[in-house]
Amino acid sequence: MEYIFHILILVSIYGILALAQNLVMGGAGLLTIAGAAFYGIGAYAAAILATKFGFNIFTTLIIAPLVAGLIALMVGSTFARFRDDYFMLATLGFLMIFNTVVRNWESFTGGSYGIAGIPKPHVFGFVFDTPLSFVFLAVVVLLIVTAITYFISRSSFGRVLNAIREDEDALAIFGYKTSTYKLMAFSIGAALTAWGGVLFASYLTFIDSRLFTVNESILLWAMIILGGIARNRGALLGAFLLITVPEALRFIGFPVDFAALLRQCIYGLLLVFLMLYRPKGILGKYKL
Amino acid sequence: MIFWQLTLYAISVGMFFSVLAMGWGLILRSAKFFNLAYGGAFLVGGYMMFLFYRMWNVHFVFSILLSLFGSGLYMLLSYKFIFSVLLRRKAKSLILLIASFGLLTATSAILGMIFGNQSTLIARHLSDIYTVNVFGAVLNLAQVVAIVFVPVLIFVFAYIRSSTRFGRAMRAIEDDSEVAELVGIPKDKTLLQIFFISGTLAGLGGIAEGFDLGLIPTSGLIIILPTIVATVVGGMQSFWGGILGAFILAIAQQLTIVFFGGSWVQAVPFVILIIMLLLRPQGILKR
Amino acid sequence: MKNIIKTKQLVKHFGGVSAVDHLSITIPKGQITGLVGPNGSGKTTLINLLSGFFSHDKGAILFSDTERRKILPWENKIYNITRTFQQIRLFDQMTVLDNMLVVLTERNPFWSLFEKHNKYHIKQAEDILGHLGLYEKRFHNAGDLSYGQRKLLEIGRVLSMDADTILFDEPFAGLFPEMIKQIEGIIKELKQKGKTIVLVEHNMAIIRSLCDYVIVMDAGKMLAEGSPEKVLSEKIVLEAYLGE
Questions:
Q1: What is the pLDDT of residues C158-213, one digit of tens each?
Q2: Domain ranges, ordered by start, for chain B
Q3: Any keyword Nucleotide-binding (chain C) (predicted)?
Q4: Domain B2-279 falls in which CATH fold?
Q5: What are the backbone angles phi and psi of residue C100, rounded to the nearest 5°?
Q6: Which residues of C touch A73 (CB under 8 A)?
Q7: CB contact, 8 Å: B257 with chain A?
Q8: ipTM beyond 0.95?
Q9: Is the dihedral of CA A38, A41, A42, A43 positive or negative?
C-alpha cells in the first residue's frame, strides 16, 4: 500500500512539473530545458529555508515559487528576445549554470553531499509524515496547479501565448508586447514548477546536486510530448504514464544505477520515436 | 611563465573546439538544424577507442581508425533513419532538435550502462600520458598532438571545401539545397557524406578528451554547449567562423580559470552566448 | 490632422541593396493611396517599415507630425495602425474565431490573465466573420481554410482591429473575380468610415477604380505621385513598368 502511495506522490509531483512546463512549451511554444533548474530552485529554497532558518514547509510553499519566479524573471528578461533553437540553447546554458552553482557553493547548497533532514510539513499541530497524508497534500497542490493552468490557458493571456507560438512577428503587429508575454509565461511556469520541487524535497527529506540535471528536463519533455503538447490533460497523462510504466523495471530487479540509466535511455528513445511517428503525442491537437 | 603556459593551454583547447565546431557547423549549415546527437558521436568515438585500445589492446592506429569509422557511422545512421526522414517531411527545426536531444540522451545512457558512470581514461601505457616540456610550459601528449595536428586538419578541410567536387556540392547545399538538387547535385548522398565526416570529427574530439581528461557519459552533453557556442559566435555561416569562435571560447575559459577557478568553466559558453545573442546575433564573421 | 503618415529621407538597406532609398512621401488622410511599382521596387519593404516589422536605417517616419525614431510593432495599437501580409500570416493552429479574438482582447499582459473573452468580443468577432462569410468556419483551424478564405480572414483581423490607418499588402493577389469584388467593397466601406488606406497592388484596373491617390515607386525611390489618371499616363511610369 505504501508503495502505491509513493507512486501517487511521484505522479502528483511530476504532474505539477509537466503542467507548469507545458504552459511554457505548449502554450507559448518556447522549447525550454530549464525545467529541472526551477524544480531544483524550488527544492533548494525549501530545503535551505527549512533546515537553516527553521521555516515550515507550508511557508516555503509560498516563498519558493516567488524565488523561482523572480529568478526566471531575471534570466528571462534576456531570454525573452530569443526564439526557437536559441531559446532552448539559452535555457540549457542556464540549467548548466544552475548545476554548477549548486555543486560548487557547498556552504549554501551542500554541494554533492546535499542537504539532509528536510522536515515534513506541519500545520496546526498536524504533521504530514505518513505517506497517506502526504499523498493528500501532493494531490491538493496538483489540483491547485491544474486549476491555475486551466485558468491561464482559457484566459485571453493563454490565447495570446498560443498566437505567439504560431507567429510571433505577426502578433506583434496587432499591438502586443510579445516579449513581456513570453517573460510572464516563463516566470509563471517557473513559479509553478517550484511547487513540485518543494514537495519533492519535503517528501524525500534529502536532496543533492545530482537530482536536478538535464535528465529530469528530458523526462519532462517526454511527459509533455507523449501526453500531447499544449494540452493540460496531456501533461497529466504523460506524467502518469512515464512514472508508472517504468516502475515495472523495478520488479525485474536491475541494480538502482542501471535502472536509472535504462529509464533515461527509454525517455530519450521515446522522444526520438515520438518525433518520428507521432509528434502530436497521445491526446495532442497541436502539431509541433 | 604562467602566461606562456596559459597561452599554450588556450591554443590546445582552441584546437580541440575547432575540430568540434568544424564538424558541428557542417551539419548546421547543410541540414539547418541544431544537431545535439553530435555529442553522441563524440561519446561513441571516445568509448570505442577505450574499448579497442585500452580493453582489447588493439594497435593504436587501428583503434583510431575503427573509432573514427564508428563515430562517423553513428552519425550516418542517425541521418539515415531519423533526420533524413524528418527533413524530407520538412519538419520544423525544433522537431529535429528534440529528436537529436533524445538520441543524445539515449546514447549517453547506453554507454553509461556498458562502461559505467565513472570517469574513463583511454591511456594504456605510461607513455600515453607523458608530459612534454615546451620552452618551460608543460603539456600532455594529447595537447601537443592537438596543437600540431589540428591546424593541418583545418587546412585540409578548407582545401576540400574550396577545391574538390565534394566541397562544391557541400557549399551548394549550404546555399540552397533545393537549387542544388535542381542543378544535379545528389543531395541525399552528399548529406550522408557530410554527416559521416561530421561524426568522425566529433569522434576525434571524443578520443582527444579520453586521452586528456577522461570521458564520462554526460560529457557528450557537456561539450555540446561550447561546441554550439563556438560555431555560432564566430558566425555560423562561415567555415572560419567556427574556428575563430573556438579560440575566443578557449581564451575566455583560460581567463575564467585564472580569475574564478576551474569549477566555473562550464559557465563560460553560456555567458558568451548571451552576450553574443544580445550584441550580434548573426555572429562575428559572415559567409 | 490626426494620423497622417509622412516619411522623410527614409532608407532601408538589405546587405548592399537599398530597398528603400531616401524616400520622402506623404500619405493623405482618409483616402485610399495606391502604392505601385515593379517587383522589388520597395513597396512591401515600405509597408514593413511603416508597421514596424523592420526597423529603418536612416531618415524618419512621422505619424501626425510626431517623429518616431524607432517604430516598435506593439505601438501600432497606440498609433492605431494595422496591416495585412503579402504572404498570409495567420495563427494556423488556432480556430478562426480565436484568430479574430486575439486581435480584440486585452493588450496588457497582466490584465489579460484575468480576462476571458467577453460576450461583446465574441459578438464583434462573429459579426465580422458573418460579414465576410466565414461564420460557418469559425471553429475550424485557420490552417485548414482555403486560400481565399485565408485572405478574407486576414482582412477580418484587420477589421476587428478597427485601426485608423490600414496597410493592405496585395490583398487581391491570386483571388477569383467575385472575391476581388467582395474585398473591393470592404475597402470602399472602410474609406467611407474615414479610414486612411494604403494599398499595394499590381492590377491597374483596381488601382484606377479604388484609389484616390497613387504613389509610384521604383528601386526604392518615388517615381511619381498624384491622381491615378494623371500618374498612370505619365511616360516615366510606363517606362518603369514596361522596361523601355
A1: 888 888 889 999 888 888 888 888 999 999 999 998 889 999 988 888 888 888 89
A2: 2-279
A3: yes
A4: ABC transporter involved in vitamin B12 uptake, BtuC (1.10.3470)
A5: -75, -45
A6: none
A7: no
A8: no
A9: positive
